[in-house]
């Protein structure tokens, strides 16, 4: 059974991927091993939601053509800056992009729980369950 513990330069790690709404409230979570690049689970995570008519904000890691085409095919729009080495860079609304900090703020809130910040749980389902508990607790405040 995959426990989503990966080995990277920093040692054994787990990545928590999430989608938040315009108020910073979590909508979906996904765990991967620490060695998995951020853009790999992006479409799987977004498929959990109906993004039709939505506007997706993401950082440069999510700027692959496959992800952008998938978002557009779902009748949604995006603000994702191109990487510096992009062959065909596209225009970005930098004013709108500033709202991406909501994801970082959410992670900051749930990492106040040491159990989330350091992943004490052996099982992925136990860790993800506590992430849900921490998110609910922070939403209730």
Automatic annotation (TrEMBL):
Residues 12-87 form the Transposase IS4-like domain. It comes from the Bacteria. Keywords: Membrane, Transmembrane, Transmembrane helix. One of its GO terms (biological process) is DNA transposition. GO terms for molecular function: DNA binding; transposase activity. It holds the Pfam family DDE_Tnp_1. The chain crosses the membrane at residues 123-140. NCBIfam families: transpos_IS5_3. PANTHER family: BLR1914 PROTEIN, PHP DOMAIN PROTEIN. This is Transposase.
